[in-house]
Predict the 3D structure of the following.
Amino acid sequence: MTLARPILAGLATVALMAGSAMAQDKPGPAAAVSEEDGKWSAEDGTPTFKVDDQGSVDWYTFSGFRRYHSECHVCHGPDGQGSSYAPALVKSVENIDYYTFTDIVVNGKKEGNLVMPSFGTNKNIMCYLDDIYIYLRAVGSGEVPRGRPAKHADKPASFTEAENACMG
Ligand code: HEC
């Protein structure tokens, strides 16, 4: 009798540890693993989002939120949720990879009556394509709620430099 309690407590601890180990073993393809100047990458090197301990999103996620809503929202609906006309991009980024995504935005896509325009010469989109992708990944993962991110990291100096170089 006296032994039962510690044994059960021990088992519960083991079960808890197994649970958290499993969660860490399966971080998902969008999990951020490395950072350079405030821009995060996933295991496969593709750009991704990061939410810090305070619930603040990285700058690119915030920038992507703004760019998405000025350039894509009109057809793809608010927060990448889709419309009667164009698909939900928060789902697309889980089904098509980064390279396919950028290829479609650069060159467009046409299926029947549905036309995704090509934006390859539109600097307001090309200069922020990673930002938009990162934002869609963030909302698609469920880690970042829909709507304007409440808190975000400061704009990195490297972002401003790249932006100026790209916009010319
Ligand atoms: C004028 C309306 C319109 C605008 C603006 C627009 N799209 Fe689209 N997009 C579409 C339509 C319609 C499709 C579906 C095309 C098809 O299936 O052939 C589509 C398809 C896509 C796809 C492929 C999705 C999939 O699951 O296959 C991607 C990626 C995409 N759009 C990204 C974007 C991004 C990023 C922006 C903003 C920079 C944007 N689109 C702006 C209409 C638009």
